[in-house]
Amino acid sequence: MHAWKRLTLAALVAALPMLTTATVHADALDDIVKAKVLKVAVPQDFPPFGSVGPDMQPRGYDIDTAALIAKEMGVKLELVPVSSANRLPYLQTKKVDLIISSLGKNPDREKAIDFTVAYAPFYSGVFGGASVKVSAIGDLSKKTVGVTRGALEDLEISKIIPADADLRRFEDNNTTISAFLSGQVQLIATGNVVAAAILEKNPPNRPEPKFVIKDSPCYIGLNKDEPALLAKVNAIIKKTRADGSLDAVSKKWLGAPIPADLPG
Amino acid sequence: MNLALSDLTDNGGLFLKGAAFTVVLTAVAIVAGLALGVLGAAGRRSTLAPVRWITGAYVELIRNTPFIVQLFFIFFGLPRLGVRMGSAEAAFLAMAINLGGYSTEIIRAGLDSIGKGSWEAGYSLGLTKWQTFRLVVLTPALQKVYPALTSQFVIILLGSSVVSQIAVEELTYVGSYIQSRNFRAFETTLVVAAIYLVLVLLFKQVFAFVERRVFAYTQVSR
Fold this sequence. Notes:
The complex is a heterodimer of chains A (264) and B (222). By secondary structure, chain A is an alpha/beta fold. Chain A has 10 helices and 13 strands. Chain B has a single domain, classed as MetI-like fold, CATH 1.10.3720.
């Protein structure tokens, strides 16, 4: 090995601990306030949470939430479009301060990053028109419910649905939606995002939320060992939920207010 | 290759239910479709021009659009016009109307093949036009096209698999349902295909039996 290569290597090895100490001891909230910029990873391919609008600007639930948090912090917002695969690396390498990217919580992710309280509902549920009085699984008896065969909702609801309910399993998502819109089924079991996408088109039959089958809400992700930032963002979510500004975001993008039982 | 057919043994009852409903769907569609076909064929040869136009339009509409589109029109489209029916009823209707279109043309060909002499023989016995059609002309006409007609019946039996799209719980639906639960796609499809094959062979036995009974007079006279 050449001497200069050895030297570079030695320098790198020597520099490494310095780098890591620097990252551990910096306080992310201080950095954000000092730079006056909040960098947030947002999706660009997952409407209604994040997509590119007709004006080529990112838009969606996650973008509006990010704007709300930046406003509360009194700093400028910088959006960083990410994919669902690279959003954690973006955070861990400090390219962003927060992930607001319809991120769900699971044990593996909790080992790698921290989560705030939930900011958005994300669930599979039963949806139907206002005239259909249903609020729990037992109310489905003698009702017709459409679901996409083999989908998560099919597997979950099949375990718990009353025997005298008429569960119709359709070939694909579009057929299930058509069956609901044409009134062939009274209710559908699907994701709240799908229901929101239908609501956005202002159909004659409105799929309004009835009850939740399986809940996996969205959380904001941030690096571990940032108690100041975590406390700050949690406080902002609580405040914006209380004053209705986060509810307005939910109504705008999901067509329904934030459910009261969203883990706070 | 590893065939795990034993994973399907618990589903025997489901397969049986699905196959039974396919048989019911097909049998009802054949009876209704045949009746529509006889009426349609008579209409196509009518002396009244509007009747010829209507039956002609019916045949062209049915034979030149896909079955699945006809089915979706009845199931998803008609509710917009205030006509609502369940998925099984929509499937019955779509299959009968579809078969009616095809059998109209087949039976018309049969009627065309019956010479003027048969009609004149009926009239000379003092029968009305309708009586002559029913008693003299129809049976030999159907006999001439019977193979083509039964082929169309087999097509409608196999085509009934399409109605699984609107959640009618027939054989194909049952197959898709089972493989959405056990992920044994190949084995399930194999079993479904085998059941269809058996069903077609059984229907062909029935068709042959009907042929021997209904067209028995030709065997006697020969």
